Amino acid sequence: MTQTTRVGHLLDELERELRRLQLWQAAEPEAEALASSLPFAVDTLAFHQWLQFVLLVRLRALLAQRSALPSNVSVYPMATEVYKSCLSEHGALLELIALLDEALSGQAVAR
Prior knowledge:
mainly alpha
């Protein structure tokens, strides 16, 4: 399986898991919230919003344009911090994020 195919599958699985957890939103946040310059838009978005409206959107756009995917990726540490109080409920989401980090960076993620 190519990297682009693998990443595309992981993005679809990530969306399904966000929906299963009822973290998927129908309405997009305001443009100002999406324009944050801080990592993960921590000042304007919840982490699941950042996943949906920033990470998924940008990676899917890169795949559609057949552009190079980022290789310096480390989303998993932030995800574990955000969901540390509910690891059992968000375990599948965390695993998908770890797999996505690995698919993009080519490096194993310490779990």
